[in-house]
Design a protein that fits this description.
heterodimer, A: alpha+beta, seven-stranded mixed β-sheet, 37% helix, B: alpha+beta, Mth169, Chain: A, three-stranded antiparallel β-sheet
């Protein structure tokens, strides 16, 4: 494996005006990997709207910082650990959580919540379409990995968060054949702190660099460039082993040192190890570093300088303080028994100088290392997109809609995620206001009667059919989830995951996804506070589907109006928004009918905003008792979820629904965005409120019945669906049944 | 040839170049703190003791190996899996 491409090597030679040595090439190679340098994507990420009254720091830092008044701040970051998790799901997922927690600590805030978004190949489901069943049968070996990956990824995330005492409060999961024998593991962490305690990141000559935490070993060597290549067997030694207890100690050390005002700069060690950490810190803070590599605590004495510089051993942090405070800092580190070493000093030159045994073994300008030459990648619209859009699809209407709804409820992408979040300690820290599954998003208590709502959303099937509309739909869904809980959106984080960017068709999809982010964020004035790009997500059967994952944060002031999805008996149900019969990329087509293609439901930004505004308003005015967004699986699934969560039956009249659908199955399962279902006992006041809104499409669609009643859908005075609650529940718990014997 | 019972020991541990935080914690926080300075390192492992019906030692070993691989008892990317026959129960 070449460390640098020939043009990168020539650029480096020209800038250095000499031949770089092996160590220098390794340092630059780690930093210029796609994973660390964003060399393909940076030009486009820069176009994102980062401005907002609340934004203290936007993208480009370890975590975004949002001001939430009263001197309080929230930090958020999202990252993936796809490649490591695909080969070692337990360790890969756990170290992914570890990395994101250290990003939050580096800003001077303490992590208070974790979320995750996961994607796997199909796990065996007897309720899927014949096409999926056949694929699972014929590629049994590849598919058997999916359950193993799911089980161990969830265990890895749970163990790390649970050990360290940070609640995992929410998540999102999708199953699709494009992730067969692979997985996407995105984790997000939210931090909370005081604005005055944020790390200032201002350093002076003769300040001291301290490396603390685990000693440096051979684990994860070439991890960053590993994540920037397609998965190949020979790369598989790049796995990392988690040690959550060391991470917890680092958290405590940082917290105490911040309170004692000891730290001038903090940076975690992640992808690219010391190389990236030192060069980025040096370049960002505009100072040089003289490093004595001989001081770095090692696991093995015979490690070569290249190995020390690019090792990705986990649970390590870099701290910078001045000479006077070094003693007090050492005392804190010793108290927590965290191994540490002084590894260098800050200099006024602007180079990263690596010394060992009194000799300089690498010396390059930090800016040169930290800023890779950016690439101009070509984009070309994939032919398949137009083919899928205009494809003639003939799907016969199902005879038994009861069975159709049950099978849809059993679809692992839709079914209850109980089996997963039961493994997470979602309440530790005592900030979790609502448990997973109760609202559309997580709600965490802050202070001064403020609450934070958070959600991650993604939809690879829609993004495959149309990356622009698909990404808009993810953004709309994330906002709808926050709105359904009564939160006002304050920031977006994005994680854009694609295949090999050297393929112009994949790069085109990436650009479309960014365009959607820019349009949504500008139109709605919700700034992007951070993000990450992950390319080279390729499997044995080709690239993954475009998988942007959107995270959104919302603020709730005062507990008045935190809404739940659970209705109460006798509630009258309304729908806001119109249902159209664009079925492309829907779970109904793909999971149940085994069909790809068709038009993706378009999203109108103005309607989406208007509908969100009215829902937020009626929640704040306490006119409704429950609310739920309509997304994957459509109206029928949203209503069934509400019924299951309350254990109460429903009686829905489909004839009353505002729609342009020609068929009942489309009406039930279309995934048209910008729709909400709400329940109320205040019909009159609610309708008065609705009447004030121009162009609002809404209608009364039915009633919540009593405990134990059936879920009933009527059309033309006929019961077209009449489900027993216990039957619905049994299908909805399909993931538990599948994983029970794993 | 009739089947006999064999005691098979399966030892799963992280590969030598992969970290073992559990072993390190035992070493630093228990052994060294209690002054057992002659002990130089600790590596932890998972041990499965199996009783296997097989025709001969070779078959006992290969059937256990197959089982460990089929059921993903260990991840070959992270761990080494040693399979040892303890003794022949009939002896």
């Amino acid at each position: 494996m070449e460390i640098l491409t020939s043009s990168e090597l020539n650029y480096l030679k020209k800038k250095l005006n000499r031949e770089p040595n092996l160590l220098e090439k390794e340092i630059v190679g780690a930093q210029w990997s796609e994973h660390c340098s964003y060399k393909s994507s940076k030009k486009y990420i820069k176009l994102l709207s980062k401005k907002g009254d609340r934004i203290i720091k936007g993208p480009g830092y370890d975590a975004g910082i949002i001001d939430i008044d009263n001197g309080d701040v929230i930090t958020i970051h999202i990252e993936s650990h796809n490649h490591p998790s695909a080969v070692e799901p337990y360790g890969g997922a756990a170290t992914g959580v570890g990395g994101i927690i250290r990003d939050i600590i580096s800003m001077g805030t303490m992590p208070i919540a974790l979320l995750n978004a996961l994607r796997f190949g199909h796990i065996n489901s007897p309720f899927a379409s014949n096409e999926i069943k056949t694929s699972i049968r014929t590629n049994n070996e590849l598919h058997s990995a999916s359950k193993w990956l799911l089980k161990n990824v969830v265990r890895g995330i749970a163990d790390y968060g649970n050990c360290i005492g940070i609640p995992t409060v929410g998540g999102e999961i999708e199953f699709d054949e494009s992730f067969t024998n692979y997985c996407l593991v995105d984790v997000a962490a939210i931090g909370f702190g005081k604005r005055k305690n944020l790390i200032k990141n201002i350093i002076q000559e003769d300040d001291i660099l301290i490396l603390a935490g685990s000693s440096t070993g051979r684990d994860g060597i070439h991890g960053a460039s590993f994540a920037s290549k397609e998965l190949a067997v020979e790369n598989r030694s790049a796995v990392q082993i988690p040690d959550p207890f060391m991470e917890k100690l680092l958290m405590e050390v940082t917290k105490e040192a911040i309170e004692a005002n000891i730290l001038k700069a903090v940076k975690d060690l992640g992808g690219g190890g010391l190389s990236c950490c030192l060069s980025e810190t040096s370049a960002n803070l505009n100072k040089g570093f003289d490093i004595d590599l001989g001081q770095v605590p090692l696991k093995y004495n015979d490690m070569a300088p290249e190995e020390i510089m690019i090792s990705e051993s986990q649970e390590r942090m870099l701290y910078i303080t001045n000479k006077d405070k070094l003693k007090s800092f050492a005392k804190i580190l010793e108290k927590y028994e965290v191994p540490f070493a002084v590894i260098g000093t800050v200099k006024n030159h602007k180079n990263l100088v690596i010394n060992k045994n009194g000799k300089t073994i690498a010396n390059m300008p930090s800016h040169l290392i930290a800023y890779a030459p950016l690439l101009n990648r070509n984009g070309k619209k994939p032919k398949y997109i137009d083919d899928l859009r205009v494809k003639e699809i003939s799907v016969t209407p199902p005879h038994d809609l009861n069975k159709t709804l049950l099978n849809m409820l059993a679809n692992p992408t839709i079914a209850s995620k109980n089996w997963i979040f039961q493994q997470f300690d979602h309440e530790i820290g005592l900030r979790t206001i609502v448990k997973p599954g109760i609202t559309d998003c997580a709600v965490i208590k802050l202070n001064n009667n403020k609450f934070l709502a958070a959600k991650l959303d993604g939809n690879s099937k829609l993004c495959y059919h149309d990356p622009y509309q698909g990404t808009l739909t993810c953004l709309s869904e994330a906002r709808a989830n926050l709105i359904s809980a009564g939160a006002h959106p304050i920031g977006i984080v994005d994680h854009l995951q694609f295949g090999n960017p050297e393929n112009p068709e994949i790069f085109w999809s990436f650009k479309k996804s960014i365009e959607a982010l820019i349009d949504f964020s500008n139109f709605n004035k919700i700034p992007v506070v951070g993000g990450k790009v992950s390319f080279y997500n390729e499997t044995k059967i080709g690239p993954i589907k475009p998988s942007p994952v959107i995270g959104m944060l919302g603020l709730i002031k005062g507990m008045v109006g935190v809404s739940q999805i659970r209705p109460s008996p006798e509630d009258t149900l309304y729908i806001i928004g119109i249902t159209s019969d664009n079925m492309g990329g829907s779970e109904y087509y793909e999971f149940l009918r085994g069909v790809k293609g068709g038009r993706v439901p378009p999203l109108d930004l103005q309607t989406d905003l208007n509908n969100s505004r009215i829902v937020l308003k009626i929640i704040k005015e306490q006119l409704i008792s429950c609310s739920h967004d309509c997304s994957k699986g459509g109206l029928a699934i949203a209503l069934a979820e509400m019924a299951i969560s309350s254990n109460c039956g429903l009686n829905i009249d489909l004839d009353k629904l505002p729609n342009t659908c020609e068929r009942l199955d489309f009406l039930l399962f279309a995934e048209t965005p910008s729709r909400f279902i709400i329940g109320t006992k205040n019909e009159e006041k609610l309708e008065n409120e609705f009447a004030k809104c121009k162009n609002l499409k809404y209608s009364k669609i039915g009633k919540v019945m009593n405990t134990g009643d059936n879920i009933t859908f009527m059309a033309k005075d006929k019961k077209i669906i009449n489900l027993e609650m216990k039957n619905a529940k049994r299908y909805y718990e399909n993931i538990s049944s599948i994983m029970k014997n794993q | 040839m009739s089947h006999r019972e064999f005691n098979v020991i399966v030892t799963i541990q992280n590969k030598s170049f992969i970290n073992d935080p559990e072993g390190e914690t035992i070493y630093h926080d228990l052994i060294l703190k209690n002054q057992y300075k002659n002990i130089k390192s600790v590596r932890t492992a998972k041990v499965l003791k199996l009783v296997v019906n097989a025709k001969n030692p070779l078959e006992a070993r290969s059937s256990v190996k197959k089982m460990c691989e089929d059921l993903r008892i260990f991840n070959p990317i992270v761990s080494d899996c040693q399979i040892n026959l303890l003794c022949d129960n009939n002896n």
